[in-house]
């Protein structure tokens, strides 16, 4: 135990405190929450969770979120793969400008796009569908996926491609059988980031949905304001939104450090 | 050297179509609104650059912009050094590494409005953990629905809680790529801790730090959901950041012209400052 490890420990405690409070709150009864302060739940209850798992407007929120996040991740990574390959292997007219333009889309505040997005997707009659949210999130996820994948592909020597072509591999066979397995860590990291940003974004998701594709996070805001102050329910729903992220992060834990550097270290 | 191959455009085409569809169409809509005036009934009239002049002269915009810059400035000067310090003191190998990484990354995977709601519950004066501790244990009057200072401290703390890990993980990625031989050489030379940091660790972290500062700038400058859920811009207008004000104008008052003009000015400022940071931070690489 070194002296300096006190810093990460204090930091992790600081990170865990609000999460602990949310989880503790979700197991308390409403009377206990409003009755006064208690550090631990005095009377454990699963009532809040039961409400969520039995009420379709609640659990469909989770299903909706997972559907559009999955569609978005698949689209983003699939189209980003060939593009990232092109950026890392070839020079072509306007490549630098295009790459920079892609990145500028990450800088646009979502608040700017909310209303035009609503009009655009309404005009295409895609309003309130999962595909609308999935496509809208491509705006910031595709540039990010291209950026990350390009970083990882840059680390693969070009000789790999050349040798494969000399050996008579066609491009699609080379790409799927040799190149993809080589950069699978990069694909995992890119998918993780797409999942993350699509999962946490709410403004666009809320703007583009009403009933059938409403994300869980939006269901929460509505409940918090309309049905009075049901803190226990709110806390339980919040706790459940942490779980998918925690599962996904556990799978990529060994690649996180490299992935956060976008493969460029 | 990369080969010149114009056919590579076909590889980029799907990305180009999807992003252009999502970026250009809405952007043109915004530009369209920004130069027109409407009196309802879907009738629009040419308004020239009037909205831009109004916005640039309006005190409300100046105030929101000032708050936004203050917020982003505080975020950067707290999160970047803190992130570097934490990354430096993290273990490099062993069982605790994945534990640290996973727990630190966790806040970033929580939906943004849940972050706001979570901090709301955490800071409630009488029943929140932090609120109770401040008011009843330390005896400090802490209530962010009344005091602008408390509201500011809370949104800053919330953002530090939410995003410092991004800086930590980026710097950590830079640090683990330093070979042990560098440290051994420094030890033989009798280098101080400061010298190791200044001449070995900092240069190695420079690239990732650039990414960290850029990402933190863009995201904190565009922040909307978390402070909106936590304080709703209040008390008064004290925490009405630029995005919150924009949404108020666009969706609250439905003043599309001014909102569109403000969006474009906002976007231009973000682009310009990002470019400035990028140029300043990579200036020495060219020499």
Automatic annotation (TrEMBL), chain A:
Keywords, alphabetical: Cell membrane, Membrane, Transmembrane, Transmembrane helix, Transport
Cross-referenced InterPro entries: BP-dep_ABC_trans_perm, MetI-like, MetI-like_sf
Organism name: Albidovulum litorale
Protein name, per record: Carbohydrate ABC transporter permease
Location of the ABC transmembrane type-1 domain: 62-252
Topology term for the membrane: Multi-pass membrane protein
Main location: membrane
PANTHER family according to UniProt: ABC TRANSPORTER PERMEASE PROTEIN (PTHR32243:SF52), MALTOSE TRANSPORT SYSTEM PERMEASE-RELATED (PTHR32243)
Pfam families from the UniProt entry: BPD_transp_1
Membrane-spanning residues: 7-27, 66-87, 99-118, 130-149, 178-200, 231-252
Family recorded in the similarity comment: Belongs to the binding-protein-dependent transport system permease family.
Compartments where found: Cell membrane
